[in-house]
Amino acid sequence: LGQNALVCINWPDGVLLPGQERSSHSKPKGISDLTILECTQIIAAIRDNGPHKLHFKFDPYSKLLLLATGANLQLADLLASKKPVILGTLPLHDSKSSKGKRIFFSGKTDYDGPACLPNPAMS
Prior knowledge:
Elements: E1 6-11, H1 36-47, E2 55-58, E3 63-66, E4 72-75, E5 86-88, E6 102-103, E7 109-110
Parallel strand pairs: 1-5
Antiparallel strand pairs: 1-2, 3-4, 5-6, 6-7
C-alpha cells in the first residue's frame, strides 16, 4: 500500500490486519487466514454507504520528488512511517480501546486513530 501511496481507511475493528499472521496456522495464506466472521465484517464495511465505509485513498502528496542529483525519488510520510497505511474504523463504545488501530509501513501498530463511537444509549 505505502509504496503506491495508498491508504486503507476504516479497516473493521477486530479483523486480522493485512500482513498479520494468525498464530493458530503454521502456513498463513493471506486472505484465507480470515475467519468467515472476519470476511463478513469486511464485506459489510465495503457495502456500508455511511462515513465508516471501508475504502482506499490515493495519497500522492505523501511522496516527495527531489531533483538534487538527477531523478532521485524519496518516499516520505508513508514509507517513513510518519503516516499510517491502514486506519482502523472507530472502535465501538464498549471496546477495550478508546481510539482506532493504525498500522504503519514499518509494521508498527498503535491505537492513536479516531476516537470511539459514542454510546447509543447515552444519546
